Amino acid sequence: MNLKGVFISIEGIEGAGKTTHWLMLKNLFEKRRFNAVFVREPGGTHVSEAIRDILLNPQWNIHAESELFLYAASRAQRVREIIAPAVKDGLWVVSDRYHDATIAYQGYGRGLDMKFVKEVTQASTLGYVPQLTFILDVPAEKGMLRISNREPDRMEQSGLKFIKKVRRGYLRIAKEEQKRCVVIDAKQPKEKVFEKIITTIEERFGVNLGG
Ligand code: T5A
Predict the structure, then answer these.
(1) CB-defined site of ligand 1, < 6 Å
(2) What rounded mean pLDDT belongs to the chain?
(3) What pTM does this model have?
(4) pLDDT per residue over 97-106, tens digit each?
């Protein structure tokens, strides 16, 4: 797909610091008056937020296949409503999680058939894939410790063994797609992680963010 805009995603297990750095980037872009669309997964549209509520509610027992379709449905809506129009308009889009999360969580984590997971994921994205993906990498224990002060949602209740599989999944994705994926050691202080994000964006797209 020939993209006019720039599409970036930020990935990693729980507590890796995705939302923290996505927000730091959003603040920096706003400060620099750099026009960009910031979205999060699952969520970002009315329909996608409603699906997010179902997916993360610990009250529900959701089968792995249903989970896959719900994440795909949430993304399908957001891609068609926000991401595709923005990218076509030449805007920058920064997404807190995207299609790799489905490969890592429902594919590697839940163990669903990978070919099937990829087909469903491909249908949800309309072929819109980020040019650059940051994978913030922390050991599962450390990530879980960072979020231990809050009530676990349905996904976080899946346990440490599951999160370890997801982390390994992300590292495999990074190995398979080295040009698109940049793995950052997210055990480092936030400032270091952010610095790496900024310099990578500047080098990759020839912009000066003055971070
Ligand atoms: N999911 C999602 C799927 O299974 N399939 C899919 O296709 C998709 C899209 C989403 C859940 O859905 C799953 C994945 C998730 O389980 P969510 O609420 O959006 O749920 O959860 P997460 O994206 O996992 O967000 P978290 O908040 O749990 O993790 P973050 O964003 O990595 O963590 P963040 O930034 O909130 O940081 C957590 C704490 O760590 C500190 C922060 O200050 C904060 O206190 N921190 C650091 N501390 C020290 N050093 C650093 N470098 C730090 N970085 C952050």
Answers:
(1) 12, 14-20, 41-42, 56, 71, 97, 101-102, 105-106, 146-147, 155, 186, 188-190, 193
(2) 95
(3) 0.96
(4) 999 999 999 9
Buried b (16+ CB within 10 A) or exposed e, 145-184: ebeeeeeeebbbebeeebbebbbebbbebbeeeeeebbbb
Please state the separation of Cα 50 from the chain's center in Å.
18
Instruction: List all residues 6 or more positions away from 18 whose beta carbon is below 8 Å from its beta carbon.
Output: 10, 11, 12, 96, 97, 136
Cβ of 44: how many Cβ atoms within 10 Å?
Answer: 23
Burial of 193 (0-12, 13-18, 19+ CB in 10 A): buried
The pLDDT value given to residue 2: 43
Q: Which two tokens stand for residue 12?
A: 């990693």
| Two structure tokens written together for 151 | 């009530």
Q: Which atom of ligand 1 is closest in space to residue 188's alpha carbon?
A: 52
Which of 3.40.50.920, 3.50.50.60, 3.40.50.300, 3.90.79.10 is the CATH number of 6-205?
3.40.50.300
Tell me the CA–centroid distance for residue 19 and ligand 1, in Å: 6
